[in-house]
Write a structure and sequence with these properties.
6 strands; alpha/beta; 38% helix; 5 helices
Length: 149
């Protein structure tokens, strides 16, 4: 279990480094929404409460970013690491329902290769049907970042 948590953290760190490289500034998560209405530069926060889950509980997202020209309504990035078979893929429907319950366009970065082919296909098939706009592996996310971040 610790390995999966560490890998998920590393995936989040990797994406945060990409945001840093593209000129986004990290801000304290509790100040993100107040700052986004006042800043003119790109910002992001990690582990930020943004909206509610399917069960109307506070929803914490891995990363949320704001760009004054590209992502004025914010963009959420969720990191899902699965290196061996397990229960995370059972959480995909909950994640998709929660994404679509909130107003933020969202990308899921799916990595590790431990999820079943069927669950990965299902998750990818949900992209474009609501606020889940893309499901990427790291290589796909790198290409997306170069064009859209």
């Amino acid at each position: 279990m610790t390995n999966t948590i560490n890998c998920g953290q590393h995936l989040e760190d990797y994406i945060a480094a990409i945001l840093d490289d593209f000129g986004y500034s990290k801000v304290v998560s509790k100040h993100f929404f107040d700052l986004k209405s006042r800043v003119k530069d790109p910002i992001y926060a990690r582990q930020c409460y943004a909206g509610t889950s399917l069960y109307n509980r506070k929803r914490r997202v891995d990363l949320i970013l704001y760009h004054p020209e590209k992502w004025t309504d914010s963009l959420v990035i969720q990191c899902k690491w699965q290196s061996s078979s397990g229960s995370i893929e059972k959480k995909y429907p909950f994640e998709v329902f929660s994404i679509n319950k909130n107003p933020y366009p969202t990308i899921i970065v799916l990595e590790g290769g431990g999820y079943s082919a069927a669950s990965g296909e299902w998750l990818r098939s949900e992209a474009g049907k609501g606020n889940l706009i893309h499901v990427h592996d790291l290589g796909e996310f790198d290409r997306f970042a170069k064009q859209y971040l």
